[in-house]
Amino acid sequence: MEDLTSHPQDVRGVDVAANDLSDDMLLRRFADGDAGVARVLTDRLGPRSFSVALRMLGNRAEAEDVTQDAMMRLWQMAPEWVPGTAKVSTWLYRVTLNLCVDIRRKKKPDSLSDVPEPEDGKASVVDRLQDEARKDALQLALAELPERQRQAVVLRHIEELPNPEIAGIMGISVEAVESLTARGKRSLAAILADRRDELGYDDG
Amino acid sequence: MTMADEDLKLDHLFADARRDRPTLSNDLVVRIQTDAEAVRLEALNPKTPPRRNVWARFFETIGGWQGFGGLVAASAAGVWIGFAAPTFLPDPANLLTSQDTSYLVADLGFDTSFLENTE
Question: Does ipTM top 0.90?
Answer without folding.
Answer: no
